[in-house]
Specification:
The complex is a heterodimer. By secondary structure, chain A is of the alpha/beta class. Chain A has helices at about 40-45, 70-75, 90-100, 105-115, 130-145, 160-175, 190, 210-220, 230-240, 275-289; strands spanning about 1-10, 15-25, 30-35, 55-60, 65, 75-80, 150-155, 180-185, 195-200, 205-210, 225-230, 240-250, 250-255, 265-270. In chain A, β1 and β2 form a beta hairpin. Chain A is globular, with a radius of gyration of 22 Å. In chain B, strands 2-1-3 form a three-stranded antiparallel beta sheet. In chain B, a hairpin with a 2-residue loop joins β1 (about 45-50) and β2 (about 55). Chain B starts with a helix and ends with a helix. The chains are: A alpha/beta, B mainly alpha.
Chain lengths: ~290, ~525
């Protein structure tokens, strides 16, 4: 469905925000993971045809979207990271505006989407008065107006409270059936339960593109739990990567990322996706060092 | 039912503009201006005066007179009022979503233009309705709506088309999005006003197609009908002993109508480059934040003068030591100077020049200083909103304290710009010095109030530049001599400005209370 071939985005002569990303994506939820500044938003901007790659190609069903952006725009839903609303429009008017922009003429579609995101009872309220979570849901509703085949959502859960995050995550998981949903985040738990694939970016490069299961499998034997005395903890953390430390009755309950047994008494643990990714990252760092 | 996307989008543009508070402010301003410019003839002045005789307030006279004044005001203010939608989209993040939709550039650009034109026509409609009200009270004949409509349409539609086209073009092409575009349009406006001098006596020729404001066409039409060159429009004094003159009902010949229609077509031409150059909110071409501002000429100048900003650090230390409002005012003034170091240089030049220049050169210096200061005020009054930290800046003392702080800082900067001239005038021409103080109070008060209500610098900027132009041109009228440009101000006019400024601040404080 979507193919990226050596996509690069360079700002000025030195800064490569995205560096030679090659990726092939089909239906499902793809979690695009990386730290702030890893190049996720720039890559998503290129997929959304907002910005052009400095080099490389982005193909949608075989058509180059840089040359003919209309090919993807008709089938694209996009929710940017800094999505806001007009101060003087109700949610319904806001949706009507984007329906006009997307050539959607069915008023029932707007109602249906507002119901889908649970905003139908607030349809006539000014969108500016909405909470952060409600605005994001409105953003998703506008992105779905044209029943897109590709849904690009950039950091959709940033700043949301836990309840809204959970609600949003479930919504995106449901939408992932029959569509390609590309969801960027630096919070792994956002995609842990819904992503069918993970694409991991670091410093503009794609460092991994795997299923969550594969990443978890790779991390087996690299994540440990240990219970050490507080005085021993300082020395231990000098030579291992501590993922989590919790003080308990004068002892430290630890989760550690390490390629081999980190200390006597440590036990192999089932890694979470976040721990697996951290373990993977530390392994690369240690190798490079 | 309206279903075409173009109409839906244009209606939305109109809706967005209509629901802004600045629209109400603009309508009220329009009504006040209309009311003021059609004076009661018993007071010895009239809207139209020919060879010292007043022209009867018939529909044709009031239509051409009010449309001329409206054109003078709107041809400048309309641009500043109409532009800024792209900035709103960029700041809110909606721009990216719009750019990713399948809508073509032409649809996006033309719908914005239509929305802007519809909104401007609505303001002009408010202007016409207020003129009707004046006609009812002060007119010399029945209201003939068709006469009004013809004159307003022929004179003002090309102007509205052109202002909206320029606003859309300047918002579509990133190099013109900032202050550079504002200044360029001001130059275009001045150039338009000078078209009349370059045109043939009968008003024909290709330049007539560039007379978007219609001022030259109106003058040529009136002169042709009245066979005179002594024609005054505005609050003109007349000789009551002379027989009043009556204009014919229909002023526009077929040739003039054709010319105005062609002019309206030419006014739409800026939309072509707008469609071709539209940035589509691409981050490569346009950014909401600092990157955009860095490219404007003033921002570049401020970048070069950045080392000067260090000179302001003692002011900040002093502000920290000072208590309450005084400290806040100092800090705010310091912040304005640190963000615009060119103002430090301008203040130094104005203060120095004010001390050494001969008395005859002081009015020119004051005009330049007030122009620079007014532009600075328009930005500083909405700086916190534009930077997205208005909630943050309201924390110390609340929204009311912030307004007082901003007003005090604007006033302080005004005194810094004009301090040496004020000192000299206070010894030699105390009334003029009082007028300068009254003008600074009024302008700074209006700047913070309009910034608070409209949340954009452009409302004040448009009205300020227009007012400055009129004030510099209008010699001998005390109420036009806002800051003592001509020495015509009286104690009464200066006190009126002072009170108006204080009233604006009081209104701002009352409005802030609702936050």
């Amino acid at each position: 469905m979507l193919e990226l071939r050596g996509v690069t985005k360079q700002f000025g002569k030195e800064v490569k925000a995205v560096d030679g990303v090659t990726l092939s994506l089909g239906q499902g939820v793809v979690g695009l993971i990386g730290h702030n500044g890893a190049g996720k938003s720039t890559l998503m901007g290129m997929i959304a045809t907002l910005t052009r790659p400095s080099a490389g190609q982005i193909l949608f069903d075989g058509a180059d979207i840089v040359r003919s952006p209309g090919a993807i725009r008709n089938r694209l839903g996009y929710l940017p990271q800094d999505f806001g609303v007009y101060p003087n429009l109700s949610a319904l008017e806001f949706m009507q505006y984007f329906a006009a922009l997307k050539g959607v003429r069915d008023p029932a579609r707007i109602r249906h989407l507002l119901e889908l995101v649970n905003l139908h009872e607030q349809a006539d309220r000014p969108a500016a008065a909405f909470s952060g979570g409600m605005r994001r849901r409105l953003g998703i509703a506008q992105a779905l107006l044209n029943d897109p085949d590709i849904l690009v959502v950039d950091e959709p859960t940033a700043g949301l409270d836990p309840e809204e995050r959970l609600r949003f995550r479930n919504l995106l998981g449901e939408l992932g059936q029959g569509k390609l949903v590309i969801l960027s985040t630096h919070i792994v738990s956002d995609v842990e339960s819904i992503a069918t694939e993970l694409a991991i970016m670091r410093a503009g490069r794609l460092v991994a593109h795997e299923t969550p299961d594969a990443i978890l499998r790779c991390a087996r034997g690299q994540v440990w739990t240990a219970n050490v005395l507080e005085p021993d903890y300082a020395a231990l953390r000098e030579r291992v990567h501590v993922l989590q430390a919790q003080r308990q009755d004068g002892r430290m309950q630890l989760r550690i990322a390490h390629p081999e047994l980190p200390c006597l008494g440590a036990r192999e643990a089932e890694p979470t996706l976040e721990e697996a990714l951290m373990a993977q990252r530390y392994a690369v760092q240690d190798k490079a060092a | 039912m309206m279903t075409h996307p173009l109409l839906l989008l244009a209606a939305n543009e109109m809706r967005l503009r209509l629901r802004r508070l600045s629209t109400l402010v603009a309508v009220l301003a329009v009504a006040a201006v209309t009311w003021a410019m059609i004076p009661e003839t018993s007071g010895g002045s009239a809207l139209l005066v020919v060879n010292d005789a007043r022209v009867l307030y018939t529909s044709s006279a009031l239509a051409i007179g009010s449309a001329t004044m409206a054109s003078l005001l709107f041809s400048l203010a309309a641009f500043y009022l109409a532009r800024g939608r792209t900035g709103e989209d960029l700041r809110s993040g909606i721009g990216g979503v719009i750019g990713a939709t399948p809508s073509g550039n032409a649809l996006l650009v033309v719908s914005r233009w239509l929305g802007a034109v519809a909104w401007l026509v609505l303001l002009l409609g408010a202007f016409m309705l207020t003129t009707f009200a004046c006609h009812l009270l002060r007119g010399d004949g029945p209201i003939q709506p068709l006469v009004y409509l013809q004159t307003y349409a022929l004179m003002l539609l090309p102007m509205a088309f052109f202002a909206a086209s320029c606003a859309v073009l300047f918002d579509s092409w990133s190099p013109l999005m900032g202050k550079g575009g504002d200044l360029l349009y001001f130059c275009l406006w001045i150039a338009q006003l000078s078209i009349g001098a370059s045109m043939a006596k009968d008003g024909s020729g290709p330049l007539a197609l560039l007379d978007f404001s219609g001022l030259t066409s109106a003058m040529v039409g009136l002169r042709g009908q009245l066979d005179t060159t002594s024609l005054g429009i505005g609050m003109m004094t007349f000789d009551a002993a002379l027989q009043p003159i009556e204009l014919t009902q229909w002023l526009w010949s077929g040739a003039m109508v054709r010319e105005r229609m062609l002019c309206a077509l030419v006014a739409v031409l800026p939309l072509l480059p707008a469609v071709l150059l539209f940035h589509r909110f691409s981050p490569d071409r346009v950014k909401a934040g600092k990157a955009r501002r860095r490219r404007s000429p003033l921002a570049l100048l401020n970048g070069w003068l950045r080392p000067l900003a260090r000179k302001v650090q003692p002011v900040m230390r002093l502000a920290a030591r000072a208590q309450g409002l005084a400290g806040g005012v100092l800090a705010d003034a310091g912040l304005v100077l640190m963000t615009a170091p060119s103002a430090i240089l301008a203040i130094a030049l104005c203060l120095g020049a004010g001390m050494v220049l001969p008395s005859s050169a002081l009015p020119g210096l004051v005009a330049g200083a007030v122009a620079f200061w007014g532009i600075l005020c328009s930005e500083s009054a909405t700086r916190d909103i534009e930077a997205g930290c208005d909630a943050l800046s309201a924390v110390p003392g609340g929204a009311q304290a912030r307004l007082l702080r901003q007003w005090g800082a604007a006033l302080l900067l005004g005194f810094l710009f004009t301090g040496s001239v004020l000192l000299r005038w206070s010894f030699t021409e105390p009334v003029r010095a009082f007028a300068l103080v009254g003008g600074l109070v009024a302008l700074s008060g209006c700047a913070v109030l309009s910034g608070l209500l409209s949340r954009t610098p452009r409302l004040f900027l448009g009205l300020f530049l227009f007012g400055l132009y009129v004030a510099i041109q209008a010699k001998g009228i005390p109420m036009m001599d806002a800051v003592g440009f001509h020495g015509a101000a009286t104690v009464g006019s200066a006190a009126t400005f002072l009170l108006a400024g204080l009233a604006a601040v009081a209104a701002g404080l009352a409005w802030s209370r609702r936050d």
